[in-house]
Amino acid sequence: LCWITVWAVVYAAYALLWRWAFDRLPIQLNAAAKRLCVDRSVFSKEAAQCVVAITSHIVLGPLALSVLCGYLAGPPEFGITSFAHGVTPDAHWAGLDVYTCICGEVFTANMIYQTLFWFLGWEKRTVDSLLHHLGFLVAGILVHWAAMYGKLTTAAIGMEISSPFLSLHILFRQIEGRCFSVVSDIASIIFALTFVVVRIGVFGYVLIDFHHHVWRQRQLFPAFTVWPLTYGILVAFTAGWILQWFWLRLLFSKTLKMCKSQAKRE
């Protein structure tokens, strides 16, 4: 918990630094941002959040997915715990555990930071975003407590590989200039693709696999498994995946609206 606290403080300080920088940069907001009553103060907060997400998740997401590949390549019981056979794991599985712990600590700290800054008004106060922050914060704490389920954990963290593109889209769509608009559009397309592949597909596969282990293959779990804690982890991550499907519906709706708008212009 000590390192989680340290990372949360680092995230908060990093965001405050970027807000200070955006307050002083000569950035001109476009007409769309002004119609939504986005002033420089609001923009600086949102932009700071975006830069924090871009620069952190562009590392965290791929790292988590690379660790996940290691779990997927091995026996299913090692995705539950590297101590599945009751002996000290070899260097390979111990290394995966170390990277999983690092990813988990940074991710949980990020959820603490995002939850706090949601209440401070640094992002749009939507119920679904708050549920996302709180849900995965609870999931992170439970996994940290259990010290198990590396495959499920890295699959969940790996979903953040799509976040930099969403943040880039949100940041650049508010700035005046043709090049910013083009980058924003390209980022939105990449976000949509990575969202479907990783958040719905990859994480969904690993989550369903975990459900199968819990309900049909309990022999894979070690004797020291705390089942009430495991059920809590199962519920938290399942709720997180359901939220992704809710966002997918919104994503399709916005994509369809954007295509219709583009067709009218042409």
Which value, in Å, is the CA radius of gyration?
20 Å
Structural class: mainly alpha
Distance between the termini: 55 Å
Tally the helices. 10
What is the assembly state of the chains in this entry? single chain
Largest sheet: none
Annotation, overall tally of beta strands: 0
The low-confidence parts are none
Notes on the structure:
By secondary structure, the protein is an all-alpha fold. It has helices spanning 2-24, 31-35, 40-72, 76-80, 91-119, 127-146, 150-158, 163-172, 178-216, 227-265. Helix 8 packs antiparallel against helix 9 (178-216) and helix 9 (178-216) runs antiparallel to helix 10 (227-265).
Strand and helix map with partners:
Blueprint lengths: L1 H23 L6 H5 L4 H33 L3 H5 L10 H29 L7 H20 L3 H9 L4 H10 L5 H39 L10 H39 L1
Helix pairs in contact: 1-3, 1-5, 3-5, 3-7, 3-8, 5-6, 5-7, 6-10, 7-9, 8-9, 9-10
What can be said about this structure in brief?
With 266 residues, this protein is mainly alpha-helical. It has ten helices and no strands. The chain has helices at 2-24, 31-35, 40-72, 76-80, 91-119, 127-146, 150-158, 163-172, 178-216, 227-265.
